[in-house]
Amino acid sequence: MEKNVLTVKNLNVSYEESEGKFFQKKKDRAVLKNVSFTIREGEVVGLVGESGSGKTTLSKAVLGMLKRYEGEIVHFSDKPQMVFQDPYGSLNPVKKIGWILSEPLRLKGGYSKEEQKEKVEQMLLKVGLSSEIADRYPAQLSGGQRQRVCIAAALMLRPKLLIADEPVSALDVTIQAQVLKLLQKLQKEMGLAILFISHDMRVVYQLCDRVLILQDGEIVEEGPVEEVFFSPKHAYTKTLLEAAGILEEGV
To answer: 136 and which of 53, 140, 243, 246 could share a cystine (Cβ 3.0–4.6 Å)?
Structure first.
């Protein structure tokens, strides 16, 4: 039986916000409310919700980027790594790709320059890029190539859990399909668990084993993809599926 790589229990996150008056006391606005879920080894879990539902806040909490929250977040392996929506904004524009990919190895320590170079070349090949890419700058690559580099950077230290936040939404349709196939391939080859954050129900159906439906900071429905997509119980889930044209026509 697979082990959990992540357990989140009763997670609550609030942000302070002002009501607009200079001397008015700030009040807390709840962004996540009693969120609980697990991710098992090698499992791909989709997190779906409209803009403002709390998806990004949840990913930040899991990554350890939030200092203030209530509840429990337990990683059963190493630190999860992140693939962001905007591949260009995620890469240092003044550094070559080889430098960017070797940075996690330098920070961890214990690798010679020769070992770093070899691991960078191996990872570039694994994500479908030529080793010659290592000598280029991000601006010299296409959007699809840049996102492959971002995926490579996230996988350099072989994490057990990858968080992918809308990783294909900034790419055109053809490139989206290629990057999704790459993620599927890497997930199987490396036994990765993935928290896949998206607003695209069709992409979630294609890639994920289970799905969490997030509305206004609460998980209102969760379960295997087939069950949630074709026998949805919550009205919000039905609304999302109808908007994607899935309930009427099938995926």
So the answer is: 140
